[in-house]
Structure formats: C-alpha cells, structure tokens
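Box 4.2: Ligand-aware structure prediction
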Amino acid sequence: MMKLGIIGAMSVEVETIKRQMQDVSVSAYAGMEFYCGILEGLNAVVVQCGVGKVNAALCVQILCDRFCVTHIVNTGVAGSLLAELDIGDFVISKDAVYHDFDCHVLNDNYVVGQVPGLSVRAFPADDFLIAVANVAAEKVHPGHFRVGTVASGDQFICDKRIKDKIVADTGAICTEMEGAAIAHAAWRNGVPFVVIRAISDKADDSAEMDYPTFEAIAAKRCAAVTQTLAQLMVSK
Ligand code: ADE
C-alpha cells in the first residue's frame, strides 16, 4: 500500500496541505511534527522539516524508519536559474544535486556536487512520481512547468555571480536549500522521491525584494500541485 511522505521546509509550504488531511494523528521527533493521516484518499505523512540540508535529511530518515513511507515528495519554493522560468512557474526534479559540495582539490573526478564514495553525483528522481507531478502541474498551471535538475545548498542565493556559478557547475534550472538532501537520503533508503518547487524569485540581485513578496503565493501554488499529485496517485 502506498504511503506518501510530504516534506516542506517552512510552515507556509505545508500548512494548506495539513488543513486538507483527515483522521490526523500528530507525533514529534527531532523537533519536527509529523501529521499522519489521509490526504485525498491516500495515506500520507506531512511534515515541516525546517530550512537546510541537515533538517531535510533527518526528516527523510524519520519518515522511512518510523512511518515506513513508500514515496517522498518535497514541496516548496525555489529561485529560478533559467530565464524562461518565471515567478509562479513550477519545476519538477529530473534529479537533484548539491551546489555547495566541492572536493575537487582532492581529485579531478570530484566535480561540484560529487560526494566522495557515492556512485551518483545527482540523485535521480522517480519516473512514476515525475510523470504524476507533470499531470498535476499541468492541471494547476497549464504549460508553466519544466522538468530539470534542482541544485541545493545551505545558502539563499541572491547574487548574479553565485547564480551563474551554480548554473555552470550543475546545469540546474532552480535552486533551493533541501531538495538534494531529501534526494540523497531517499536514495540511500531506496525510497522513490520527486522535488516539486514553485519559483518565488530569480536567485539574483532582485531576489531579496521578490522573495518576501512571492514566497507565500508560490508556496501555496506548489502545495496545490502536491495535493493534486496525491489525488492522482490514489487512482493509479
Ligand atoms: N528558495 C527560494 N528562493 C531561493 C533562493 N534564491 N536561494 C535559495 N533558496 C531559495
């Protein structure tokens, strides 16, 4: 039986989803509240993990160990790395990579993102979840989404030079602060995942202005896609 773990870093990214759940029981681990119940007829656990990679990875491990989730979705906002991706548009992860993991001085094979000892540099998202996320995004905002690489790091990006370096290093189409850590932890546990993000800013010098303005709108729009994904998963 499917059980979907839904992770958002911030309250605004998960609060509307939590409100739509039925038969909810709440439990706390590592300072995170896990809302376990039914969403759109699907068994689901919704949780706010907090910002950054460590919070995100911890959360995935708890979802796997304590809640035995079969699939994981990360919902939230991101900075755009692609001119065509505007505020309010969506990104669905093909894969996710760290932009702040860099051991290249040790070995030329360690390009940015490569974690020494791991067989992959970018953690591949699940084909089924990507396909369902595509249908969900098309329903919520037709034509306004892309499938591509998500780049994550413990840094809010609001500088054109840093943005350009992330693009050059990773080829990613959006940047945020949890996706690759969720992907990494899910990959290690053999649990399929997808990252779905709505663009809140352009990750350049305009980001400081745009982010507070568009954060809530983008986060709620992304939550709507995630909820639609749950609805579609029930019928599969
Ligand atoms: N989340 C939303 N916008 C972001 C940005 N510019 N950098 C990092 N995380 C983000």
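In the box above, the bound molecule is adenine. Helices lie at 11-19, 53-67, 127-140, 160-170, 179-189, 207-234.
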